[in-house]
Structures are given as C-alpha cells and as structure tokens.
C-alpha cells in the first residue's frame, strides 16, 4: 500500500501563515521585506496543498474504467451533465442496429435541438 502525503499539516501551515499575515497588518508592523516573506510562506503552503489535492486526480483515473472516468469528471464538475446525457443517448442510438439508422437521425437531431 502506497502512503499518501496527508494534507493536514500543509493546511495547518497555510492557516498559520495567513494568520501571521493578518497579525502583521493588525500590528502595523509591515514593511516590504516582511510582507514578501509572509506572502511567500502563505503561497508556499497554498501551492503544496494544491499540489497534494490535484495530484490525486491524475493518480485516481488510472484505476477507473472509461465510464467511471466520465462519471468522475461530472462529479468533479469538469463536464456538464447535458454532455453526459447527450453521449449516453447518442451512444445508445449508435449501438442499435444499422436498420434503425433513420430513427437515429430523427431522434438524434430532435434530442440535440433540446440540449
């Protein structure tokens, strides 16, 4: 079993960095140098947290079937539900026998005009 880097310490680091930034402004003790350091700390934590999150997406899809990948993308918001409905219906029509090709044309164009 592969060990996945936990996001919690990185998230806590980001929260602490943002609090330090806020405290610096609240105290009125901010100059260019301290601001750059505080921002760099916060952005370093944010970048690492984002990497941990996004890297799991590309690692996950290698274990999924094409149909699961479609569903996964929809759940993540990467693909609209209307695209899934269109692909599902058109896929169904295309799997029908060649003798139903006129039905496909009529129903497919009707369906696409509604989406």
Characterise the protein shown here:
- With 115 residues, this protein is mostly helical.
- It folds into two domains: 63 residues; 50 residues, no CATH class.
- 77% of the residues lie in helices and 0% in strands.
- It contains five helices and no strands.
- The longest helix has 29 residues.
- The C terminus is likely disordered.
Secondary structure elements and their pairing?
Layout: H1 8-27, H2 32-60, H3 66-76, H4 81-95, H5 101-114
Distance separating the two termini = 44 Å
Derived structural class: mainly alpha
Number of domains: 2
Low-confidence stretches: 92-115
In percent, how helical is the residue content? over 70%
Number of helices in the DSSP assignment? 5
The beta-strand count equals 0
Strand content: under 5%
Rg over CA atoms, rounded to whole Å, is 25 Å
Envelope shape: elongated
**Averaging pLDDT over every residue, what do you get?**
75
State the order of secondary-structure elements, H for helix, E for strand.
HHHHH
Biggest sheet overview: none
